[in-house]
Amino acid sequence: MKIDMHTHTEFSRDSSMKVDELIERAKARCLDGIAVTDHNTMDAVDKIKKLRPDINIIPGMEITTDRGEILGLFLTDEITNTDPKKVVEEIRAQGGIAVVPHPFDPFRSFDGWKKIDVDGIEVFNSRNLTSGMNKKAMEHAEKNQMIKTAGSDAHSPWEVGKAYVEADAKNIEEFKERLINGEVEIRGQRGSFMSYVYGNIEKLKKSLKK
């Protein structure tokens, strides 16, 4: 299975990508599934489950904490806590996996994430501006035997599938098991600088509408 582990939709503060656009692009890129990880909401997950049962979905959130963002993967309910340690506890209580996204990006990094007992880190994020950021993440994950994830961090259709995790699995349950055991391959390519700019433009547009 090939799964992009970090995507956003119009339900995020900095994306206008429709749910159907995300699904169709994922299929066009020959992905077997996607992790839907909008900022602080699971509304898109619920919508996809109702409208598009034909796609494998890993329910998730990119949770804003007092220190930075944490990806919660394989969730069952939204998390509203902002204390990073409690967020990790809540993710695990749901049977989920707590991951730090883009850990070595100085513009988006989690303040002091190494002091938080997370399960894994994102070793490839397509929106990282330099390859060195992903390289450091991979080295850190391997040195500390952490779960490794990869995702496009897509905020627009053309970004979907630029990074993903591949595992020999028949369903999401098997995929999760392979992920935890480190029996996965990390695939990806960095996006353009314009992808990064696009997200900031969308965030500004949405803030002006409020």
Structure description:
By secondary structure, this protein is of the alpha/beta class. The chain has one domain: TIM Barrel. The protein is 33% helix and 22% strand. The protein has helices at residues 19-28, 43-51, 84-93, 131-143, 172-181, 193-209; strands at 2-7, 33-36, 56-64, 69-73, 97-100, 120-125, 147-151, 163-166, 185-188. Strands 7-6-5-4-3-2-1-8-9 form a nine-stranded mixed β-sheet. The longest helix is centred in the C-terminal third of the chain and has 17 residues, at 193-209.
Helix content estimate: 25-40%
CATH level-two architecture: Alpha-Beta Barrel
Number of strands: 9
In the CATH scheme, what's the topology name? TIM Barrel
Question: End-to-end span in angstroms?
Answer: 40 Å
**Oligomeric form of this entry?**
single chain
Mean of all residue-level pLDDT scores: 91
How does the helix and strand content classify structurally? alpha/beta
The residue ranges in which pLDDT falls below 50 over 5 or more consecutive positions are: none
Query: What's the domain count?
Result: 1
